[in-house]
Write a structure and sequence with these properties.
This protein has a domain of 469 residues. Helix content is 63%, strand content 8%.
């Protein structure tokens, strides 16, 4: 591996003009494809095979006029006043005229008027699903009845859910990344080149993603996740390779050789670090959830592109930059002075600097630091025991947004249950059987604890499918509502002569959460198992991969604990701009585990690969640990700060899903990089000593030698040089 990447790095450096031209051509082609073939994203969260999804599919076939998107218009009279049919009629009429609306139900006909007569709900049914609603239709709906005098009119429902957009918030992360790179490298050229390299990879990945969006159903969060991860790892990988290149150049090596060496050593670590991220993200497909699979594969493809860019375009750009990647003070030094400067900056043979001082502190205080770290992370994980999961509803949207205003007004007038209505779908072979089953179903549901009301059944034209609107007593994400849904499903199993299924946004959310909870252990076992095996190949050790996995468990526990404390329990919620605490989004745990595991292994590979490299080249086991921390502390710290800044920028978005994902990833990176990888990992490595690199001989014979530390590269380069000199003679 090291030799192959060494040759690739030299080739890219030597043919830098062609490499740059190829990447620019690829970007142009992908950009053209995105412009020509991009399609809309979707906000649907569905899982084929669940009861709620089967019911929705049946509605689309048997009752199409009830299978489209829905909207709700909430009307409120002034305080102390009451609504009248004449006052509400203009609102209902305006809603009925919205393009694509098949029905707008008068609240006085449907009896959707509050007991005090002050509030009313107009149910609006569209002909197409949410993804078929255009911006023009949504705007027309949001204005329906808004100008009626003396009435407060709010528009909500599934068609008013905000679609997260990539705006200016991520620019903050890029700005912080640029600042950290300048401070790390001391060179504007090196910082700009590293950042540009990452942006090229992200641009290629995003363009390719949107080029496929017309044929692949993308959720609205998939492009944002791909952007988030692609930008973060792209900067990290370029930073790691550029740092190694600068060390070699400062040591007096010529540019082409330095690029080859950097690609062969640091590039090998990047390949396997990227492989762990790709495995973790692609592994999301085992959950059997389409929208999660697409999110994982989209992000995995962007990460893979970031690796490819770092191994090809980066050496080419280094060729254009030349010695300008070094700080100005180092550029005109002779070889002897360069070596001394390199040592001062953490280069070969360096023994001073913060990284080495910290490595020695950890070596001396390994036991106390290990105990404090483990106990502290365990304490931070305590809130996890109260963690609740659900799909987000309008109650967690930003205050002042249309959907949130409609939700709050509905709650005020009718109670939270009216925001989480359920739909019982009764399907029979004949109209008579369906009618009898619908009547029996309505009675059973009405007697269920937690049910506030059941509306009279509505039937399709053939009379074979009936709908019953069910109003629970509690809100969509309330734990009591989940109990009510399960109780209803248990009771209606006794209905004969027709099938009964419960659906609606609330039921879909419950089914999604349950499916993901069942998939999580399988996913965790698969991803951790494959990644541990990959790390065994990389480090040729049993204990190093196991230690890496155990450290990750501490990371994920503390991250979940902090996220629950803020986003669910509301502690310090104002600091992240959260208006209303609530359950975490149901796919956050599995998504967070996948992403954080991959990123955690990035830092593991960066740190431990240098430890392994020094150990293989003859250093003492404990000295190699200090050396690994010393040489890489600066790079890992910079990478973690950059990644935290990129993720943290998304916390400023209003969408609660993106906000929680960005926050959890930012916290997870900080915890893993500075507590687990920079403190606990070297502490454990010091305790293990040479045993850390133990590998049973039978296993050693089976595993292929990937040579990530570049041992064969060190042996082959002198031979190549000697052969070249003989050829010249």
């Amino acid at each position: 591996m090291a030799i192959l990447l060494y040759r690739l790095g030299r080739l890219s450096f030597r043919r830098r003009g062609r490499v740059l031209a190829l990447w620019l051509l690829l970007l142009a082609l992908l950009g053209g494809g995105a412009a020509a073939f991009s399609g809309p994203t979707t906000s649907k969260f569905s899982i084929p095979g669940t009861e709620s999804q089967k019911a929705l599919d049946a509605l689309t076939r048997e009752f199409p006029q009830a299978g489209g998107a829905t909207g709700t218009i909430v009307i409120a009279a002034p305080e102390g006043g009451k609504l009248t049919p004449e006052a509400v009629a203009p609102v209902t009429g305006a809603a009925a005229k919205v393009p694509g609306v098949v029905a707008a139900v008068d609240p006085f006909v449907s009896k959707a008027v509050s007991r005090d007569g002050r509030y009313a709900l107009v149910q609006v049914q569209f002909a197409t699903g949410v993804d078929g609603i255009t911006d023009a239709q949504r705007e027309a709906f949001s204005k329906a009845g808004a100008s009626v005098a003396d009435l407060r009119v709010e528009h909500g429902g599934e068609i008013m859910r905000g679609v997260p957009e990539v705006g200016s918030t991520e620019v903050i992360g890029v700005g912080v990344a640029a600042l950290v790179l300048i401070l790390t490298f001391g060179s504007l050229v090196a910082a700009g080149m590293t950042l540009l390299n990452a942006l090229v990879g992200v641009a290629a990945g995003m363009a390719g993603l949107f080029a496929l969006s017309s044929t692949v159903e993308l959720t609205s969060t998939a492009p944002i996740l791909a952007l988030m991860l692609g930008l973060a790892v792209g900067i990290d990988y370029a930073l790691f390779i550029t740092s190694r290149y600068r060390t070699y150049v400062a040591d007096g090596m010529d540019g082409e050789e330095a690029a080859g060496r950097a690609a062969g050593t640091a590039g090998s670590a990047v390949v396997f670090a990227g492989a762990t991220v790709v495995i973790a993200l692609a592994g999301l497909s085992v959950a059997g959830v389409p929208f999660l699979t697409v999110m994982g594969l989209a992000a995995a493809a962007t990460v893979a592109l970031a690796v490819l860019v770092s191994l090809t375009l980066l050496p080419a750009v280094l060729g254009f930059a030349g010695v300008r990647v070094l700080p100005r003070k180092q550029r005109n030094l002779d070889r002897t002075s360069s070596v001394a400067s390199a040592e001062a900056h953490g280069g070969p043979g360096a023994g001073s600097g913060f990284g080495f001082r910290w490595g020695r502190v950890v070596a001396r205080l390994r036991v106390p630091l290990l105990l404090v770290g483990v106990i502290g992370l365990g304490a931070l994980a305590l809130p996890v025991q109260d963690m609740r999961l659900a799909l987000p509803d309008a109650s967690t949207e930003a205050e002042g947004s249309p959907n949130r205003e409609a939700y709050d007004l509905t709650t005020r007038g009718f109670g939270e249950g009216f925001n989480g209505r359920l739909i019982a779908v009764v399907s029979g072979d004949t109209p008579g059987a369906t009618a009898a089953a619908a009547k029996e179903t309505a009675g059973l549901i009405a007697e269920t604890d937690g049910v506030l009301a059941v509306a009279p059944p509505q039937t399709n034209e053939r009379g074979t499918t009936a709908l019953l609107a069910v109003i629970p007593e509690t809100g969509p994400t309330d734990a009591a509502t989940e109990d009510t849904v399960n109780a209803i499903r248990d009771r209606v199993e006794s209905v004969r002569g027709a099938s009964v299924a419960l659906t609606g946004a609330t039921a879909v959310g419950i089914d999604v959460s349950e499916k993901l909870a069942h998939a999580l252990p399988v996913y965790l076992l698969l991803v951790v198992g494959l990644s541990v095996l990959l790390l065994m190949l990389v480090f040729r050790s049993i204990l190093v991969p196991v230690k890496a996995a155990l450290g990750f468990l501490l990371t994920i526990g503390a991250t979940f604990g902090i996220t629950v404390a803020i986003f669910q329990q509301g502690h310090l919620a104002d600091l992240v701009g959260l208006d209303t605490p609530g359950p975490l989004v149901s796919f956050l745990p599995i998504l967070l585990i996948g992403i954080l595991f991959g990123l955690a292994m990035d830092y593991e590979v960066f740190l431990v690969s240098r430890m392994r490299e020094d150990f293989v080249h003859g250093s003492d086991a404990r000295e190699s640990v200090v050396s690994g921390v010393g040489h890489n502390a600066r790079v890992v710290s910079a990478a973690a700060i950059i990644m935290t800044a990129v993720f943290g920028g998304f916390v400023l978005m209003h969408d609660p899903i993106i906000k929680s994902i960005g926050f959890a990833l930012a916290v997870g990176v900080l915890v893993d990089a500075f507590v687990v990888r920079m403190t606990l990992v070297p502490a454990v490595m010091h305790l293990l000593g040479r045993a850390a690199w133990w590998l049973p001989r039978p296993v050693d014979r089976i595993l292929p030698d990937l040579d990530i530390e570049g041992e064969r590269l060190q042996q082959e380069i002198p031979v190549q040089r000697q052969a070249a000199e003989l050829t010249k003679v």
